[in-house]
Amino acid sequence: MTGQANAGRPNQLLRNLNSKIASIPMILTAVVIFLGGTLWTVFYSFTNSKLLPRLNFVGLDQYERLWDAPRWVISIQNLAVYGFFSLIFSLVIGFVLAAMMDQKIRFENAFRTIFLYPFALSFIVTGLVWQWILNPEFGVQSVVRSLGWTSFSFDPLYTPSIVIYGILIAALWQGTGLVMCLMLAGLRGIDEDIWKAARVDGIPMWRTYVQIIIPMMRPVFITTLVIIASGIVRVYDLVVAQTSGGPGIASEVPAKYVYDYMFQAQNLGQGFAASTMMLITVAIIIVPWAYLEFGGRKRG
Amino acid sequence: MADTIAPNPNALDPNASSARLAAGPRGKKPRPVLAPRNIMLYGALIFAAIYYLLPLYVMVVTSLKGMPEIRLGNIFSPPVEITFEPWVKAWSTACTGLNCDGLSRGFWNSVRITIPSTVVSIAIASVNGYALANWRFKGADLFFTILIVGAFIPYQVMIYPIVIVLRELGLYGSLTGLIIVHTIFGMPILTLLFRNYFTSLPEELFKAARVDGAGFWMIYFKIMLPMALPIFVVAMILQITGIWNDFLFGVVFTRPEYYPMTVQLNNIVNSVQGVKEYNVNMAATILTGAVPLFVYFVSGRLFVRGIAAGAVKG
After folding, report:
1. Interhelix angle for A70-101 vs A108-120, to 10°?
2. Which of residues 102-141 of B touch A (CB under 8 A)?
3. Residue among A25, A34, A104 whose CB faces B128 most closely
4. Gene3D superfamilies, alphabetically (chain A) (predicted)?
């Protein structure tokens, strides 16, 4: 083999050697961390690891314990409520803002800059600002009361039943600018002639949007949906900053459950089981999307 | 892949929209500025803009007030007596645990984390994207697909295995370890960004260089790198804001003396001991947000392009 390689035609392994060397970090990341790490975590979620990972298999014990834990059930409920409203509101607000921006308005750049700047800020900053604005003693509630409406009550961060909506408000403030940008890009990608045709036919503007433009923007909506959804499953810093999971455990989320069990409660098995559940949640979102998006293309 | 994740960056391009303007007027005849439709449109936009600006305004005014004024007044009122004391205190004397040297420590930690992480991750991803675009080898697509799919896996799933790997390497808790972590998690989006860019360049360019006998690194440094400068800027914006804003990796992979600014900020504001000094908290919050905000306002449209590509990162 070596003789052949020296003779001029390099063997398979040495072809494109530089390219392969340059790809080593990617290959290591993809195989060792993304693939290996994920399998490792799933594998160890069937053990009763505590402080250190140990190969002591207990079957589905960790999962049973997980779903029996009130804190996990609340986390999942919170994620469901937060996820549902977050998807609906960010799509609706993002689209409406984008549609308004697409009316050939003046100062488009200024408006875009204003709507998008929260996205440049971290979730920690976002959470802390809204913690302050929603502060019952000094924030919105006290301001409205001082205007004379003394019975006004708006205290999401200290009311267990609605605390997740307080987090939702902050998340929407931070994230809708991004959705607006993606939607605006989608709107700008739509052929001018569609608008002309609709106008010639005398279709009112709102119907053009609902019946023609939105169906045409399906790919943009789906991509945006996937982006928002995978962000929702990850929500962590925002909750840590805004409420630290409180009051009590009312605003816990799965990502925080994982972190707390892995690094504070020193119950690795629980952390692995919980993170595997997160992985399944993401898979439920991603797999159908990837199938629709790429499965079809390969056949075509 | 690229088209679906980065929905046509040209649509955000200034030239594209001006080209559309040049193509001819769209829509009905121009109406008077004060038509009811315009009043509603601008009214709604201005209302939304006020809502988005309000938190920034509240942050700034709160940070400029003294504590007595905060206790008496309302959070939306401008400061009667402007004081910069909270800013000084937030920067140099606010306490986290036993350390009372303020946010400056976190700021410098964040600088020491962000700069090398940005440089290393971009260097690796750009070479990698170039290899994937122009020097394809067997199996490259498979690894790349795993990498992109991996971008959607929640970080929590991979954190602990990384802790073990770093511990084995003796890097757990160190700055180097954190830089490696940022490089790993920045790789999917950055590689995608560079691969797509290099694929979009005319192939003749590459072929001509090959005919002239240039090799892998020669072509990269002499031809590809100079041509890809705009995309390097986009990648830098993406990485600087992303890494500066990171909280989870900072708290998991470093020791307290290396905590980045976000972690320290959270510790200062959410500490249970002592009287809450809201003005100091807000000054600290602005200070932490200042770097990404600066990058955002300076970079303008490139930022939009970066997030359109980087939205995957979430």
Report:
1. 160
2. 124, 127-128, 130-132, 135-138, 140
3. A25
4. MetI-like
Structure tokens at A83: 């996820």
CA distance B236 to chain A (A): 14
| Angle B152-B155-B161 from CA coordinates, rounded to 5° | 120
How far off is chain B from A181, nearest CA to CA, in Å? 8
Q: Which of A106, A115, A125, A182 should we substitute to test contact with B (largest number of B Cβ atoms within 10 Å)?
A: A125
CATH code at B298? 1.10.3720.10
A1 and A96: one domain?
Answer: no
Residue B78 lies in a domain: no
Cβ within 8 Å, pair B164-A53: yes
What residue of A is the nearest CA neighbor of B263? A124
The answer on A218 and A163 residing in a single domain is yes
Nearest-by-CA chain B residue for A241: B266
Which residues 22-51 of B have a C-beta within 8 angstroms of A?
A: 23, 26-28, 41-42, 44-45, 48-49, 51
**For each of chain B's 314 residues, which pLDDT tens digit applies?**
334 444 444 444 444 444 555 555 566 555 566 678 888 899 999 999 999 999 999 999 999 988 888 888 788 888 888 888 888 888 888 877 777 788 888 999 999 999 999 999 999 999 999 999 998 888 888 999 899 888 889 999 999 999 999 999 999 989 999 999 999 999 998 999 899 889 888 889 889 998 998 889 999 999 899 988 888 998 998 899 999 999 999 999 998 889 999 999 998 888 877 778 888 999 999 999 999 999 998 887 788 777 666 554 33
Answer yes or no: is B12 within a domain. Answer: no
Q: Do A12 and A156 fall within a single domain?
A: no
A3 assigned to some structural domain:
yes
Could you give the CA distance from residue B3 to residue A172 in angstroms, rounded to a whole number? 26
Based on the domain organization, do A212 and A73 belong to the same domain?
A: yes
Looking at the 3D structure of chain A, how many domains does it have? 2
Question: Does B46 reside within a domain?
Answer: no
* Interface contact A27, partner B, CB < 8 A: yes
Tell me which residues of chain A, numbers 50 to 109, contact chain B at a CB-CB cutoff of 8 Å: 53, 97, 100-101, 103-105, 109
Q: Where are the alpha helices (DSSP H) in chain A?
A: 2-6, 17-22, 24-28, 38-44, 61-68, 70-101, 108-120, 123-133, 140-146, 163-188, 192-200, 205-207, 214-216, 218-234, 237-242, 254-263, 268-290, 296-299
- Indicate if A90 and A26 belong to the same structural domain: no
Q: Within this chain, do residues A36 and A84 fall inside the same structural domain, yes or no?
A: no
> Token pair 């569609």 is at which residue?
A194
Confirm whether A51 is domain-assigned.
Answer: no
Residue A230 counted as domain residue: yes
**Do residue A278 and residue B1 have CB atoms under 8 angstroms apart?**
no
| C-alpha neighbours within 13 Å on the C-beta side of residue B42 | 12
Half-sphere exposure of B123 (CA within 13 A, CB side): 9
Number of domains making up chain B: 1
A146: CB partners within 8 A, 6+ apart: B74
ipTM of the predicted assembly exceeds 0.90: no
Give yes or no: residues A116 and A214 share one domain: yes
CA distance B192 to B309: 9
Q: Which of B76, B153, B307 sits opposite A181 (nearest CB)?
A: B307
- Chain B residue numbers with beta carbons less than 8 Å from the beta carbon of A274 are 156
Domain hosting residue A12, numbered range? 1-44
